[in-house]
Amino acid sequence: MPVWVMAGVWGLVGGSALLIGAALGYFARVPQRWIAAVMAFGSGVLISALSFDLMDEAYQRGGLFSTGLGFLAGAAAFTVANWVLARHGAKHRKRSGGQQPSEVEDSGSGLAIAVGSLLDGIPESVVIGLSLLGGKGVGLVTLGAVFLSNVPEGLSSSAGMKKAGRSTGYVFGVWVAIALCCGLSSLAGYAVFRHFAPAVIAATTAVAAGAILAMLADTMIPEAFEAAHDFAGLITVAGFLCAFALSKIAG
Q1: Long-range residue pairs from 193-198, CB within 8 A, at least 24 positions apart, any chain
Q2: Lowest mean pLDDT: which of 121-130, 132-141, 197-206?
Q3: Which of 34, 104, 129, 235 is 20–30 Å from 49 (CA)?
Q4: Distance between CA 251 and CA 248 in Å, rounded?
């Protein structure tokens, strides 16, 4: 199978976790405190992957300047896009406790939430494709971190969508579309950048890493802290340790 096809397949695998989480959040009565705990765990997993996999890989490929510039650019780009979407009703797209507005309360918020959820998933998927550029196969730590973090993302967001009165078709239509876009983003991450210089690949990896960290701070961590604030820090550390151990075992 061509590598570019494999990139798309692995991106789809990572994105499929969003559907798993969405099904749990929509059909199962998961207490909000448990949703927050899983969100904290997923945040820790991604922070660890950023620290010991993505940023280190970017630094090894392109040095500090390319990595730092890309990291800040990714965070800035996500922040601006998130700010625009928040003004149109997508501010609480990861929240499960009833903060998401309904279409009646905020016309156009449904589209904004869908676009915002897509925005959250693209950087994670791009780095899966970029991990294949070294010719050593998919980065298992990156893939595992994305998969583990996508479950609570889908779970929390779909629970909030249900409380906001979104239809079943809307909720699962959004997550199926995003999962497919994750596959396409991973494919693009490999196909577009495979002929670029290491410094460009490093900067792109860092851009994705910066966007992911900004997403964590803006969307996932607030949800985790709101309902599980007494234990959010400990649970986040447990997620961090899990991904760190995975990186050492895979390495």
Answers
A1: 193/129, 193/130, 193/133, 194/133, 198/61, 198/62
A2: 132-141
A3: 34
A4: 5
pLDDT of residue 30: 76
Confidence of residue 82 (pLDDT cuts 50, 70, 90): confident
Structure-block tokens of residue 40: 């904290």
Q: Which long-range contacts (CB under 8 A, 24 or more apart) does 142-147 make?
A: 142/49, 142/53, 142/54, 143/10, 143/13, 143/14, 144/243, 144/246, 145/45, 145/46, 145/48, 145/49, 145/53, 145/243, 145/246, 146/14, 146/17, 146/46, 146/49, 147/13, 147/14, 147/17
Taking the C-alpha atoms of residue 130 and residue 128, their distance in angstroms, rounded to an integer, is 5
Residue with tokens 């967001």: 157
Structure tokens at 18: 């969003």
Cβ neighbourhood burial of 223 (10 Å; 0-12, 13-18, 19+): buried
pTM across the whole model: 0.82
Average pLDDT over residues 10-38: 86
Give the whole-angstrom CA distance, residue 81 versus residue 93: 14
Whether 168 shows a pLDDT value over 90: the answer reads no
Which amino acid appears at position 128 of this protein?
I
Residue 110 buriedness (CB in 10 A; 0-12 / 13-18 / 19+): buried
pLDDT for the residue 96 = 57
- Stated as kind and residue range, the H or E segment containing 215 is helix 198-215
